[in-house]
Amino acid sequence: MAETITRQLREPFVEAAGLGITNKGLGLLGKSIPTSTYTGRGFVADQSALEKQAAAAAANLGTLLGPQAYQQFESPYQQEVIDTSLAAMEREQAKGLGALRNQAVRAGAFGGGREAAMMGEYQASADMARAMQEAQMREQGYNQANQQALAQLQAQQGLGTYQTQLGGTQRQINQGQLAADQEAARETAFADYTQLGLVAPQLASVIGGFPAATQMQSTPPPSTTQQLLGLGIGATGLAGAVGSLFGK
Length: 248
Description:
By secondary structure, the protein is mainly alpha-helical. Helix content is 76%, strand content 0%. The protein has helices at residues 2-29, 49-59, 78-106, 113-189, 191-208, 210-213, 224-245. Helix 1 (2-29) packs antiparallel against helix 5 and helix 2 runs antiparallel to helix 4. The two termini are 47 Å apart.
């Protein structure tokens, strides 16, 4: 008698719970889960700011290569220095020519072929010295500018490598956070299936205990509870099947 009373008290709860699980499982059959909520480009980390800066700088390294790369590092005052130096040489050369004329006058050879030969030889030597001086100054300026271009290239390469390494580490950190966000979004999308899969077996174990508690009585015809038990267990399997269709 006590067992019968216990069953009567629990029967409405069990029937309601089993029916709720069954209806929940049937409702999930027509539910479509948008995979876009937990997939797509939004969960893939983009290049970090440092990686983008390194890539932009690398695209401009071509300006530091080639035969004209040194020109951007030439001193803006180089030509002025050359012009000033050559003007000073010309003044000294003019003084030398004057001294030769005076020497020719004292020797009584002014205006003669001997003076012309001496003047021509001096002028040729002066022109040669002037050209060599200008070439040396331009070569010096070129070497300095070329060294600065090379130093700038090496500095940019080193900085780019450092930025790429740091940027890659930052991107990995960002990707880890996005992976956690993606998993959270996926769990949210499948929350109904997960909850049904956890509750249904527990309810089935509770219902399954009643036949053992009423073995002393004559076997009655299948009750609504027992019928719902089959539906509840079916809903459990059904939830699992539906979950597998959506990527579980």
